[in-house]
Amino acid sequence: MIRTYDAGTVNDVYPRLVQDLRGAPVVNSRNGYTREFHPCYLDIVDPVNCYVTSYGRMINLPFALIEVLWILSGDNSVERPHFYNSNIKNYSDNGITFNAAYGYRMRKHFSGVDQLHDVIEKLEADLSGRQAVLTTFDPMFDRASKDTKDRACNVISMFLYRDGALDLSQVIRSNDVSWGLPYNFIQWCSLLQFIADYLKVPVGHYYHLANSLHLYDIHEEEAATVQPFNLMDFVGQIEIELPNPGNWIDTDDFINMVAQYEGGIRKGQLHGTALDNLLNDTKQLPYYWREMLKVFVSYRYWKQDKQESEAFKYAASLEDGPFFPMLMKNYWHWRIKKLDSDDRRIGMFMDTIQTWLMNIVGSPGQVEEVRKWIYEESKVVAK
Question: pTM for this one?
Fold first, then answer.
């Protein structure tokens, strides 16, 4: 029987979904037993608020953002996302590319047809038309006899302009509620925002249909700690904007340019004054893209150079929106909380958080709520 959920934001639905799945029927899989809803349908009213910030499920923000850029640019390389998530290489067949990279399937895989551009052209020609569809499933490359670690889970995206806004219906054959769904929300809601901004129309609903939405047994302990928390209620949202919407050549060049900047940041080739000038260039880079690049800069100092002071400095340059608290939560749980209590980096970290929160959030009570969320101080285990 189909399970349906109507919600304002992903943070309204995600904790309910996880807790409900804990009591779902058990279904065996090749990766162990799962608890499964088949099928499951979600209606998200506000897809701009697409970052899951529930207690108990921390998102790797740099990886989530690189997936957005990776998809939009049509890339299928392992190198780019691997820097932000080393485990992802395990899903590549050759260590160089992925078999079912969504952006590549969307923009380059099918005899060079750019489905992203095609969807936009169809909507430009007939905004109320029903032909704006892109597919990421390929029967040749996802067939049973294909020896691959990477078959497409997201299979089709259908865009429809109704009631004065652009909706996206996303169909997923197999959806892991812990490792997959939070990132799928960001991927596809970002694509919806991108196309809506290009067309200069409002963002509508995000509809998510998973044929199998499941919770693996290895994630059941984590699932018991998932509780509601909507960070955006305290720090505001961040929405994708393009510098020259309506012009495809400029838009395509812009995405490629941002991808080149990310590569320069990741490889340490873009730094110093040139980097700081770029991050402050409000004419070339709209707000979302500047904030994205700041996250990448901060993470590069954090991971590659182990320079926490520089990582915190660039994190602190993030403006209102969810990226600063999400990134600092990553840093806390990845390394800082494991340091000796007298390590000076702990004080530096806490001072950076307190200063940013006081400047952006303002209210002492709300500052305390966000601070608790970063440190997961309010997390409890559900029965």
Answer: 0.96
